[in-house]
Amino acid sequence: QVQLQESGPGLVKPSETLSLTCTVSGGSISNYYWSWIRQPPGKRLEWIGYIYYSGSTNYNPSLKSRVTISVDTSKNQFSLKLRSVTAADTAVYYCARVQGSFDAWGQGTLVTVSS
Amino acid sequence: EIVLTQSPGTLSLSPGERATLSCRASQSVGGSYLAWYQQKPGQAPRLLIHGASIRATGIPDRFSGSGSGTDFTLTISRLEPEDFAVYYCQQYGSSLWTFGQGTKVEIK
Q1: Partner-chain residue, chosen from B44, B46, B51, that has the shortest CB–CB distance to A106
Q2: What angle do CA A86, B94, A36 make, to 5 degrees?
Q3: Are the beta carbons of B92 and A101 separated by less than 8 Å?
Q4: Which chain A residue is nearest to residue B36, measuring alpha carbons?
Q5: What 3-state DSSP class applies to A86?
Q6: Tens digit of pLDDT for each residue in B37-85?
Q7: In whole angstroms, what is the distance from residue B73 CA to residue B65 CA?
Q8: Dihedral through CA B29, CA B30, CA B31, CA B33, nearest 10?
Q9: Sequence-distant (≥ 6) Cβ neighbours of residue A88 within 8 angstroms
Q10: How far apart are CA A11 and CA A112, in angstroms?
Q11: Tens of pLDDT along B13-28?
């Protein structure tokens, strides 16, 4: 059974770059789409974007100018970079596998944007 | 952008009762690409239903999904204690995937 685990700093300063990595275990990252989703405190889930194992991407237009998702198949990992963060980017960030819907999720990691 | 509106915001029911949750889309969801997730406090969402009516692997048959176009429903036939949680719908029929705001099913 595939498992996903997010890792990265829990605190990021305003205007800096948020960087997270998702490690996939129990299965190969190949032949699937992978996604990042976030949930600000008390708010609904927001899809950030996805990447195919080959590297093609699709981003939420509201975040597209600040987001980069990349993949490293040799490490079975994919990553998120969100530039120029503000307090509004404070959220629990999830990585997930895409099979149409999101059929496997990481446990999530809280990232707080604060000085 | 397809906006998903869930109702009611909170559903207060007793174990053994039937729960009916609604998800309405601002425009038609292509291919009935509509999913339902369950989320408990401090946990990631769990996929229950995809393709509007297909139960995900390991999901009990008391959970069922229906609907098409702009109106979708999640039904829990008999609530078990572990079913009290927040439920989200999500559409993946357009290039911008979106979620509803959630329905909380609480113990009455």
Answers
A1: B44
A2: 40
A3: yes
A4: A101
A5: coil
A6: 999 999 999 999 999 999 999 999 999 999 999 999 999 999 999 999 9
A7: 6
A8: -50
A9: A40, A113
A10: 5
A11: 999 999 999 999 999 9
Identify from A102, A103, A109, A110 which residue to disrupt to test chain B contact, counting B C-beta atoms within 10 A and taking the largest count: A102
Paired tokens of B64: 């069922």
The distance of Cα A18 from the centroid of its chain, to the nearest Å, equals 10
Structure tokens at A104: 């496997």
The 3 state secondary structure assigned to chain A is CCEEEEECCCEECCCCCEEEEEEEECCCCCCCEEEEEEECCCCCCEEEEEEECCCCEEECCCCCCCEEEEEECCCCEEEEEECCCCHHHCEEEEEEEEECEEEEECCCEEEEECC
End-to-end CA distance of chain A: 39
- Of the pLDDT bands very low, low, confident and very high (cuts 50, 70, 90), residue B31 is confident
Q: Residue A96 has which token pair?
A: 């997930």
The token duo for B46 is 């769990």
- A93 SS3 class: strand
Q: Which amino acid does the sequence have at B63? A: F
What does the alpha-carbon distance between residue A29 and residue A25 come to, in Å, rounded to a whole number?
A: 9
